[in-house]
Amino acid sequence: MKKWNGGMPRLEDLLRVEVDDCGEPLDELWHGPVDADGASSALHRLKAEYLLHDMQRFFERKGIWVRETVAEKLYATNIVCRSQRPKWQLFVTYGFRTLEIQERYFQSAQHNVRIKAREEHIKLTEREIVQEAHRRCADPRVAGHPTGGAVDVTIWDMERNKAVDMGGEIYDFGPKSFFSCADLTDTQRRNRSYLRRLMMCVGFAPFDGEWWHFSFGDREWAWYNHAVSFYGPLQTSEVPRSVRTPSTGSCAQLVRRAQDWRKKV
After folding, report:
1. Does 79 reside within a domain?
2. In terms of C-beta density within 10 A (0-12 exposed, 13-18 middle, 19 or more buried), how is residue 147 classed?
3. CATH number of the domain that 173 lies in?
4. Which of 4, 116, 121, 246 has the fewest CB atoms found within 10 Å of its own CB?
5. What CA–CA distance (Å, rounded) separates 149 from 55?
């Protein structure tokens, strides 16, 4: 597993990343991969549910959509987690987001930056406003969620029927959203570190500003890996709105891969 020494990319860093979209389609996250007979064992089942409701009007179903390879990696991550902590499972709370929604969020972030600057009598150029807004909400030009390669995840305790204590609620954008927040208990710090190791062992890149955010194939992942991004933003016309048949015959293959990845956690 690559050692992460911290740091977050600047907007300029991400804009310089080369993008060559591979054309991989989106797939709906099911509870887990199924075999040819339609079976999906308890070991493979993950929890997937949008905690933000902005995308539920877009799809006919409430499932979370991600690129096919991202879905496979999430299933494998869950297998690793379940094999090590049988009462825990991966909880995916967000995946693909349309560019239109991302743009709306970013415009709101720019508006808030302008208001704060006026209140504090600070003069900012348009470039500075965009940069500051990007620190609060990703610029649509480089955002991960519109590519289908970024996900928000935590861990669900099935025995207690609640999320594992990470020292802050998911989407709480205060100081505790930062992975290395100082105001954490030892247990909370261990839980965050375990989630990060799980995701990184299968190839996801972390984001230090949000302990729950990880990505694969997008600009942020490419910046972290010094690589070319192979997931670009998807247009609305490219996104399936109805359910697709899940892939078959993948359970055994994922279990074999998970056994290798588990050694890296």
Report:
1. yes
2. buried
3. 3.30.1380.10
4. 121
5. 16
